[in-house]
Amino acid sequence: MIMEVLGHSSIRVTMDIYTFVRLDSQRSAFDRVGKALRGTATIRTMTTARPVSL
Fold it and tell me: Between vectors from CA 22 to CA 14 and to CA 9, what angle results, nearest 5°?
């Protein structure tokens, strides 16, 4: 099982960690969509970050 490979003591530990990561990723995605809809989005590349009007 994944929990054994990761060294977690129970499946609950694994689920708690990865459920939190998933929710955090979803929240970040919703924030980016909201900024895009408000016209305050920023495009980030490896060398620049600049405001974008949509």
Answer: 5
